[in-house]
């Protein structure tokens, strides 16, 4: 990576060998793990326990929301632990390899609660298994994301890496969902709506766990060759107290750029979680789509990711990361809710119309592409915060920052589902509802509560990005400052070394 990146304004470190295709592919492929987990937890967990098992939506939503309390402590601890770890496999790969087996096991157990539990006991089961699954995958996801700024410090290259990672994440999430709807959730005479068939969820859980395990292992093995070139933790100067760890963590969290992204992230991932938890409700009860039609619609997100992967770097260069993130988020969500409010006023294609599914596919692809562009560019913005903070504090704490990013993403499977539970309760939506007999007024009530909640979350989140201060010029200046400091440190080490001592 010694050549200048077009439009980037900075060059890769010439002492580091270029990233090969296999490494890039493995880096992106690993995102399938979190994509599968997000698809299962954000979309199917509420539907399964509420409509299949019969647990009230409020209990399911509250159980998942409570996992945020666990994430609030676990994710920062993982990020900090990784940042200060020194090993022959660096500070990222030990956590990546160690996450594969427990994540797969806890994911499976989530869907197999013991028989005879009450609704409240099932709520505790959901809380425990979801917390363990999310903590395990955080070991992988935080360190995988934190590896991006260590693979490249070039402004535009980072956006390309995150574009690749988001494409595979979408492929994992919606490819898994499409396969499940088309193959696993099979309609029967007893269960004409396949996603309401309880017997299907065993294969669903096993397939998801297998994909998560494979994705993590491929990522670890495929990026193992980069270990010698990734930033190691600083050499410890003595035992560090818990108070010192906390002070260094909070020093990083005071960065203005980080705080603006964090504020945006909390609202956007809550909105994404709300969308994920309710999308099957709209497909099943509003548009009355079959499992096959729902499977077709999941591919709109794969189309969206394919469009967003090259467009995100383009609009990042054209408009800047901050502006493109805000504009595409608001416009995309406005397009995404169009079929819902049009259905509310009875001006959209009716159930069974030949253009219903194609139109939903087109809207979903455009909406998804715009939101994906916003997500890719905000992730790249977070990578730029790493150097901005290093200039201010003298420490590279990528793990700490991406632990916060992991927390934001976990919101999509917890706080978003909690909000979905509230929306369903406000709408008086019944458990185990029959799509053939559910009153139109109940579905209309769901639309009335969902549309302003979803759009409002995105709009409020975008306001935080007005405070993001890092431009391309500031990032490039930060890189030059850090390179100059590292050069000075090497010169000082050579100057102070005893005569005849080998250079390190």
Description:
There is one protein chain. By secondary structure, this protein is an all-alpha fold. The protein is about 75% helix and about 0% strand. It has helices spanning about 20-30, 30-55, 55-85, 95-110, 120-145, 150, 155-185, 200-220, 240-255, 255-285, 290-320, 320-335, 340-345, 355-395, 400-410, 415-425, 440-465, 470-495. The protein is globular.
Any low-confidence stretches, pLDDT <50, length ≥5? 1-9
What share of residues is helical? Answer: over 70%
| Measured distance between first and last alpha carbons | 23 Å
Shape: globular
Task: Please describe the topology of this protein.
Elements: H1 21-29, H2 31-53, H3 57-83, H4 93-110, H5 119-146, H6 148-151, H7 155-184, H8 201-222, H9 242-253, H10 256-286, H11 291-319, H12 321-336, H13 338-344, H14 356-393, H15 398-410, H16 415-426, H17 440-464, H18 472-496
Helix pairs in contact: 1-7, 1-8, 2-7, 2-8, 2-10, 3-5, 3-15, 3-16, 4-5, 4-8, 5-15, 7-8, 7-11, 7-14, 10-15, 10-16, 10-17, 11-12, 11-14, 12-14, 12-17, 14-15, 14-18, 16-17
């Amino acid at each position: 990576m010694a050549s200048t990146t077009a439009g980037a304004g900075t060059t890769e470190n010439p002492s580091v060998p270029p990233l090969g295709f296999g490494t890039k592919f493995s880096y992106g492929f690993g995102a399938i793990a979190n994509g599968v987990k997000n698809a299962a937890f954000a979309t199917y967990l509420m539907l399964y326990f509420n409509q299949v098992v019969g647990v009230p939506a409020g209990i399911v939503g509250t159980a998942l929301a409570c996992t945020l309390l666990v994430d609030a402590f676990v994710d920062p601890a993982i990020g900090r632990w990784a940042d200060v770890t020194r090993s022959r496999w660096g500070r990222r790969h030990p956590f990546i390899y160690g996450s594969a087996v427990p994540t797969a096991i806890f994911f499976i157990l989530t869907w197999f609660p013991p028989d005879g539990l009450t609704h409240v006991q099932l709520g505790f089961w959901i809380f425990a298994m979801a917390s363990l699954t999310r903590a395990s995958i955080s070991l992988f996801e935080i360190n995988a994301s934190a590896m991006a700024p260590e693979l490249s410090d070039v402004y535009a290259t980072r956006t390309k890496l995150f574009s690749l990672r988001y494409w595979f994440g979408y492929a994992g999430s919606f490819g898994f969902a499409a396969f499940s709807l088309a193959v696993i959730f099979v309609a029967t005479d007893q269960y004409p709506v396949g996603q309401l068939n309880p017997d299907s969820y065993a294969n669903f859980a096993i397939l998801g766990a297998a994909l998560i395990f494979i994705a993590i292992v491929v990522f670890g093995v495929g990026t193992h060759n980069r270990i010698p070139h990734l930033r190691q933790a600083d050499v410890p100067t003595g035992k560090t107290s818990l108070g010192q760890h906390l002070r260094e963590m909070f020093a990083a969290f005071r960065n203005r750029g980080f705080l603006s992204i964090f504020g945006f992230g909390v609202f956007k991932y809550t909105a994404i979680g709300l969308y994920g938890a309710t999308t099957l409700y709209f497909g099943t009860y509003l548009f009355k789509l079959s499992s096959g039609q729902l499977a077709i619609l999941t591919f709109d997100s794969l189309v969206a990711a394919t469009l967003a992967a090259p467009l995100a770097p383009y609009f990042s260069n054209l408009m800047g990361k901050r502006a493109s993130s805000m504009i595409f988020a608001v416009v995309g969500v406005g397009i995404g809710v169009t079929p819902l409010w049009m259905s509310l006023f009875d001006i959209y294609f009716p159930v069974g119309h030949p253009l219903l599914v194609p139109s939903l596919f087109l809207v979903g692809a455009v909406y998804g592409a715009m939101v994906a562009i916003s997500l890719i560019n905000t992730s790249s913005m977070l990578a730029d915060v790493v150097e901005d903070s290093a200039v201010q504090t003298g420490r590279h704490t990528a793990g700490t920052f991406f632990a916060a990013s992991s927390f934001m993403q976990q919101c999509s499977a917890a706080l978003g589902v909690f909000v979905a539970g509230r929306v369903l309760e406000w709408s008086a939506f019944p458990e185990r509802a029959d799509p053939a007999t559910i009153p139109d007024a109940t579905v209309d009530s769901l639309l009335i509560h969902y549309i302003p909640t979803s759009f409002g979350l995105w709009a409020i989140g975008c306001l935080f990005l007005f405070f993001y201060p890092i431009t391309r010029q500031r990032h490039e200046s930060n890189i030059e400052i850090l390179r100059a400091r590292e050069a000075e440190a090497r010169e000082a080490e050579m100057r102070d070394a005893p005569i005849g001592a080998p250079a390190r």
